[in-house]
Amino acid sequence: MTQETRPPEPDWLAMTTGELIAYREAENRFRASAAARAVTGEPDPGARIEWRELALPGRVLPVRVHRPAGRAGTLPLVVHVHGGGFVGTAVQSDWVTSHLAARLPAVVVSVEHRLVAPDQPLADAVDDGWDTLRHLVRDAGQWGVDPARAAVFGESCGGLIGALAAIRARDAGLALRAQVLVNPATDVTAAMFDHGSVAEHAQTPTLSVPVLRLIQRLAGPGTRALSPVHADDLGGLAPALVVVPTHDPLADHGRRYAERLAAAGTPARLAEHPGAGHAFLSLPGLAPQAEAARAEILAFLRTSFAA
Which of 113, 278, 282, 304 is labelled catalytic? Predict the structure, then answer.
């Protein structure tokens, strides 16, 4: 059997649509491979993991479901959204999602959302996050979850999707217990580059300005409506834990969003992790700060579900 290897980094600003798709497929094969586990971490043995499919309006969406092994009865629900924007898979987050399932305990459903491409704008991925949450709460009995104990949890671009899902949940009268946003992208307008951290950490190993420019270009129309930091009303939302690695171009995205939440009266805790880079929570084999962040998320969700 051929062992998967990581594809070489492309020219982000010059890549064609065909090159984007080819890179995405190769990178996602690597992220889902056994070879990547040394970096992305091993799943918690206390959780059972399976792929399932959701029949959503106009599409069928894969989701990766984590359940505590040997645990019966109704459990809290955590809807998780992985990072990457135009690349990424729910498998890359097994280390944290399986741990939460086993230790909370809860049913953690990680969304294999549509990835951004020239013919697939960011709004599609945002719809995938919200529609998954709404579907699971509506059919809670079939999934063995308690609709009154639900939370969203997103990383990077998934943090943006999770934040917007929390806003839609409030507007729809769906009460969430919590939202966890890890190194979230909260601004995909042209102003996303005006934050100080973008200039300070423009070229990091896990995220660079050229990648951000590609995401901004691919995002499609209506970027202000897709940027939670620019939302008109951030009051009345689920309490938030905003996890920020300090050596991240998006660090100020998370900081500003936490400030705006708090100013609107939404409880928001900002947790900074000195020296950590973007996507550190999905890279426990490289980032020693990932363990502390995972413990903090676990404690926050456990308290939120017990309230």
Answer: 278
